[in-house]
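Human: Here is a favour to ask of a fellow structure person. Comparing notes only helps if you start from a blank page. I am asking you to supply a protein in sequence and structure-token form. Write it directly below this note and I will take it from there.

Assistant:
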Amino acid sequence: MNLKSIKKIKIFALILALLIPALAFSGCATTAGNGTSASGLSSNGVGLSTKMSSSIFLQPVAPQDKIVYVSVRNTSTATGLNFRQQLISELISEGYKITNNPQEANFMLMSNILYIGKTTKSYTMAGALAGGFGGALIGSRYNTATGVVGGGLLGAAVGGLIGDLLKHKAYMMVVDIQLEQRQKGSYTTNGTSASEGLGNSTTTYNAGVKNWAIYRDRVVSQAKAINLQFSTAEPLLKKQIAHAIANLMP
């Protein structure tokens, strides 16, 4: 065996020595399970963050009046999410009875899943919150989905390979909600503004809704970890969103 072959073997062995710990670390950082922190900010190495575009405060009611009608729509490209059942489970844990008859409900909770998928330059948590209820999902100059670990004794090639293995990946879920509470004497009129250009806008009002107070909000949740997979992030995102919505109820 010549000197050149020996050198190649040494280089290959060094690359393996650098990659094996990286692979082990990236694998254990994305395993979902029961290891949720007491604060709820992480679950087995997956960082969790949930925010709302605004705060909603409802009037408290007697236990027997905690009856809610739930409607969930999904206009995202993802299918088979079964988010409604997750949301209902959280509401039941908060002491609510679920009804399919709006006439007997004291609360109506309507939601629409706008997006669930990767956090990218075009789809960011900050951008989704900035859009607000009914607004667009806009990008941000902050890209929280990427982060490369570079360097390495063998130069940029080895450093870049390790960086790919240790790359932080993030997924987010965006849900618009309309929460209505039955309140005698209240009168709500909803309006939609449309831009006409040159700084002008037109607001169109629909008919007023009597005896119902109406609140609208956007809820965004993000899961982030090294080499995170969507199959790991999806159940965590749904649980975080459902928990946040259910805890808006009085």
About this structure: Confidence is low (pLDDT under 50) at residues 22-34, 141-165. Residues 3-31+42-186+208-246 form one domain. The longest strand covers residues 168-188.
